[in-house]
Write a structure and sequence with these properties.
Strand order of the largest sheet: 1-2
Helix content: 55-70%
Oligomer: single chain
Structural class: mainly alpha
Number of strands: 2
Strand content: under 5%
Shape: globular
């Protein structure tokens, strides 16, 4: 008897449940609808063309959040390999592998949408850099395993996966920054069924 493809089944379930999880989180954390309706920062994200290349989105949000585009490219490379349909076994979603609570905190209704996913990931990274005094290694560790665990460890946690994550992002950052690695030039198109499972430790913090 043929065994079921559990990765494919889990991917379908995750995609079906992700909007419900995000919606539930939004109910708890987002501001009243009357305030949201007049928030120009939120309105600005609603009318970007759906065919915008990922590299263009990266440039836009890197500028908005005062980040190096090469750094965002490196994080996306390590997190999802530029696959906007990526879903990890921990429930992290999309290009920058947002957890549902994180997506809700940044008003992301669809974490599979590259525009909202990159915007939220860039905003999260900017906040982590600010809170860790500009220390990129600590900010990356916090992005991977959660801010609380990094503060508790008073440095990068002694977790091989997190240490490898930081090293990989910094390595790709240098390669993208110097032009020795080219980012994916993929255009954002209607999503396919997710095929890839990425198993990385991820905290909801």
């Amino acid at each position: 008897m043929q065994q079921p493809n559990w990765n494919q089944l889990w991917s379908r379930v995750a995609r079906a449940l992700a909007p419900l999880a995000v919606a539930a989180c939004l109910i708890a954390v987002m501001p009243p609808a009357s305030r949201l309706a007049i928030d120009p920062a939120i309105k600005a994200y609603q009318h970007r063309p759906a065919t915008e290349p990922i590299v263009s989105l990266i440039a836009t949000y890197a500028e908005q959040f005062a980040l190096d585009p090469a750094l965002l490219q490196a994080i996306i490379k390590v997190e999802s390999n530029f696959n906007s349909d990526a879903v990890s076994s921990k429930g992290a979603i999309g290009l920058m592998q947002l957890m549902p609570l994180t997506a809700a905190a940044f008003h992301v209704l669809d974490p599979f949408d590259p525009k909202d996913n990159i915007r939220a990931g860039a905003a999260l990274l900017r906040g982590l850099l600010d809170r860790f005094g500009g220390d990129l290694s600590l900010a990356l560790a916090a992005y991977h395993v959660g801010e609380a665990r990094v503060r508790h460890a008073v440095g990068i946690p002694a977790l091989p996966a997190t240490q490898l994550y930081v090293d990989r992002v910094l390595g790709y950052y240098e390669r993208f920054r110097t032009g020795s690695e080219q980012p994916a030039l993929r255009t954002v198109v209607p999503r396919r069924a997710a095929q890839r499972m990425i198993d990385q430790p991820r905290s909801a913090e």
